[in-house]
DNA sequence: TGTTAGCACTTGGGCATGTTGAGTGCTAAT
DNA sequence: ATTAGCACTCAACATGCCCAAGTGCTAACA
């Protein structure tokens, strides 16, 4: 038996199954794809593929379905990332034009990606650990409530409320703001924990308490901006593409709502030399996603932040991978410039 | 025939159907609810209720199901908003404790409400038109890119990027910031369009251009914070509560993603004297929600912003309404104080 | 007049049974 | 190594049957 043909058969099965949603049998296979052999031969090949765990039959007398392992092989060795259609390229161009602030861009991007792939799209906020402090602002909301705002030179703004143990005045806050700003302006966000304590220590005793609270607030903000967040779009696609029930969407919606889960998932995906990483079905660390695949890639400086999509294992990998890669590139270009 | 009993029958039908998900028949009804009459009598009443369009039979020989109109009557005249259970009260207390900034609070609130009701919860950002300018900040991101930050005394922080026609320097920005701040600090957000032009007019000609761009950015931010946004949680409940398919969740997810739709929906809901407003099935202006109900109420100053839930028409209205009302009250209290 | 008992009637759901067709695995021939 | 042929399996579909739940109606009743 010929090894290359076996792979060809696998590819055919995957491709057919992906857009028919039905188990594909030997006969249908020889008809649609002009492999130069008879269905009996295909049957033999399929038996082997099944032995290797690449495909499986839902029941005795049905066609075969690719297994997770089968998709994996398909993605790794068979499929070629297709170039995007002209229409798709145009869509990317026009939709990502007119950049605004980071949030806007990410929101549009993720919407675009979800439309392009008909899946749920997810994008992680860019990492900002290397960003530097640009400004800070203390705003008195109530006598013991202070709004702390941290502006990074990356354009990211973080805010949070700090509760003081004693009443604070505007003047005190002004003074403290000047002190803090003098010491930390321009320093990296992830160095804050090292720098802040010394500032507090130098404060006059009467202010020490308040300063401590504020410093703590600033640390939290710095951490939060290093700490990750995400935007998503296209959840309705989950319901659409699964008119039947191959993917029970409940657990997937849960995973998406538990942003922490998704963020870990994205972060943990190793960078793939081919540009996009794919995690298929049970390969996913999260149980609820055992029938789903994630296609993701990095973007931006150092490809540190991730963008990707989430969909049923039965998806059009080549096109999806192409879309993810293309969108990530455009995004990198826009943010980078 | 007795009018009050007819209503009692409707109530019984609604209550039974809501938690059994199955059409309820005359016999089952007399068994579970000790109405003092026989099933035959109930049958007569049911025939009348059906004539009035309050209930309907899915097929000849099945029990009856409440119609939208039936739910409406139930909500308006029959049901009493049940008090929350002690456990629920405790949950509200503990989860909404430790207030942070507005975003945090809203996020926790909406999560809480979705858990309490097992539905999708939605909350609109509070209206801030009456808020005043506390601080502004211009940050140079690139020679022609300026990050504009607007901090309101309500604790809301808005940010956006402005593109300048010519290169700007830090010094220029500092100067402009001082000018702007001098004129608009303390003035209401919705007065910005009136105030800003005069500031620009007073700028030296060399800065006029840049000032114009910044003023425009500030206006946009002020508008955006008046302009509405929302947070939601619990989309996974859609899949859960509809294990079968009474509610096709696709269109609902779409509606939720089109935030504009949801926001209009919420805004358009008239304030109800009883505290919560309910919009049932086809009463909803949006087609995708023809099998869903919205239970919402206002919160915060003037009850101007809305909070509510979205679920299948077949939902436990009394409890849901109670939860929405209770959460809205707590939220008002927290934000108000 | 409102209530009730009784009864004929309708109908979806469950079940057993039969049939069909797609698909497989195996064997023997090429 | 490939192929034709064939026996076999099994989900999906159809058919027929019965049952239970539920209805509407009528006639008797308080």
From TrEMBL, chains A, B:
Per UniProt, which keywords does this protein have? Answer: Repressor, Stress response, Transcription, Transcription regulation
The record's PANTHER family line, in alphabetical order, gives: HEAT-INDUCIBLE TRANSCRIPTION REPRESSOR HRCA
Boundaries of every HTH deoR-type domain copy: 18-59
| Entries under Pfam families matching the protein | HrcA (PF01628), HTH_DeoR (PF08220)
Q: Member of which family?
A: Belongs to the HrcA family.
Which gene produces this protein?
Answer: hrcA
Its taxonomic path starts at: Bacteria, Bacillati, Actinomycetota, Actinomycetes, Micrococcales
- Organism annotation: Arthrobacter gyeryongensis
Instruction: Report domain Heat-inducible transcription repressor HrcA C-terminal positions.
Output: 103-321
- State the SUPFAM superfamilies in the record: GAF domain-like (SSF55781), Winged helix' DNA-binding domain (SSF46785)
User: What is its biological role?
Assistant: Negative regulator of class I heat shock genes (grpE-dnaK-dnaJ and groELS operons). Prevents heat-shock induction of these operons.
Q: Which domain of life is it from?
A: Bacteria
**Stated name of the protein:** Heat-inducible transcription repressor HrcA
